[in-house]
Specification:
Blueprint (H helix, E strand, L loop, with lengths): L1 E5 L6 H10 L3 E6 L12 E4 L5 H7 L7 E4 L5 H11 L6 E4 L13 E2 L11 H20 L3 E5 L3 E2 L14 H7 L4 E4 L5 E2 L2 E2 H11 L9 E3 L6 E2 H11 L6 E4 L1 H10 L4 H10 L4 E2 L2 H6 L9 H14 L8 H15 L3
Parallel strand pairs: 1-2, 1-4, 2-3, 4-5, 5-7, 6-15, 7-12, 8-11, 9-14
Antiparallel strand pairs: 10-13
Helix pairs in contact: 1-6, 3-4, 7-11, 8-9, 8-12
């Protein structure tokens, strides 16, 4: 099976690339750089700037694929460009959407693929919804062979907390110094974090799957934690105890707005402040045997080790530091 990943070396997609190669897939990776990550030596590099359609068309001239999967499409313009480029070139096009597109506030805590898509708080989510609508219209009107996949808070080389870190080491540095870390609300709302290696099992099982055309899937762990447990597990992996300060989501967003970090409102109010549990029955039905096997306590240990293997990975994001300091000062009167 010939498969093209647009991206293929990111937080989620690297694990998908590695598993695809182990499964014997003939894998092509389209991006601007060289393939340098471990485990990807068998992939064929196609160098092109995804944001320059003429480069992509030139780079894949005369090529066709059984599957094209795009990990870096974020706007309707991106997916329309893909429809135009890959129409007739692929038997399946997989779009990586987001589970944050599901209805907020939701009418039921248990999320299935039939849960409405509506997020008035986060433009990122609204753009993903618009992408899905564009692709499904192409499926209905011309038979464009789309499959939609919605990850939710999937991690490997990122730290999946709600406030304080993502691609940076800021939250761990803070925990090791004994400084307060911010947990929204009282920390009791429910959440799901999924290791990329687990996500990859469900994702690769959909590649080339004829019955998956025209369908949407979320792929998550079945482990459900509250936010206190998530932060405590991060601290445990760092070898310390978390100094947790509970702050309302509204207060966090108000202070973030004052610092020019208005994206926090979408990230928190539009996603992580609500309790969410995913029903993974559909992906298990289409990919028999799929099961997430990496508990967060184990997975986050691997992530922290990855950061600490190289000093340059242990970067402090100044905006995250400023936000946490400002929240602490506002709530407790201490810097």
């Amino acid at each position: 099976m010939r498969v093209l990943f647009i991206g293929g070396t990111g937080n989620i997609s690297t694990a998908c690339s590695r598993l695809a190669l182990r499964n014997g897939i003939e894998l092509f990776l389209l991006n601007r750089g060289n393939i340098t990550k471990p485990g990807l030596a068998g992939a064929v590099s196609i160098k092109a700037d995804y944001h320059k359609p003429e480069e992509v068309i030139k780079a894949i001239k005369g090529m066709s694929f059984d599957v094209v999967a795009n990990f870096i499409a974020f706007t309707p313009e991106d997916v329309q460009k893909d429809i135009d480029i890959f129409r007739g070139r692929t038997k399946q096009y997989v779009f990586i959407s987001s589970a944050s597109a599901y209805q907020k506030p939701q009418s039921h805590y248990l999320i299935t693929e039939s849960t409405p898509l509506a997020n008035p708080f986060w433009d990122y989510s609204r753009d993903k919804i618009a992408c899905e609508e564009t692709l499904m219209r192409a499926y209905r009107e011309e038979g464009f062979p789309v499959t939609i996949v919605r990850p939710s808070h999937t991690y490997d080389t990122v730290i999946p907390v709600a406030v304080g870190s993502w691609e940076d080491y800021t939250i761990v540095d803070r925990m090791k110094k004994g400084l307060p870390v911010i947990v929204h609300g009282d920390g009791s709302s429910l959440w799901t974090v999924t290791h990329s290696d687990d996500f990859a099992k469900g994702f690769t099982g959909l590649l080339g799957h004829q019955q998956a055309i025209g369908q949407s899937f979320h792929i998550t762990s079945d482990e459900v934690l509250n936010w206190n447990q998530i932060y405590e597990a991060v601290a445990e992996a760092a070898g310390v105890k978390a100094n947790i300060l509970h702050v309302s989501s509204d207060t966090i967003c108000r202070i973030a707005d004052q610092l020019g970090m208005d994206w926090m409102r979408g990230n928190l109010i539009g996603d992580k402040s609500a309790s969410v549990v995913f029903d993974n029955s559909k992906i298990k039905r289409f990919v028999p045997g799929f099961v997430a096997t990496i508990p967060f306590r184990q997975g986050i240990e691997r992530t922290i080790r990855w950061f600490e293997e190289k000093p340059e990975r242990m970067a402090i994001e100044e905006n995250n530091r400023k936000l946490m300091d400002a929240i602490v000062k506002n709530v407790s009167g201490t810097a």
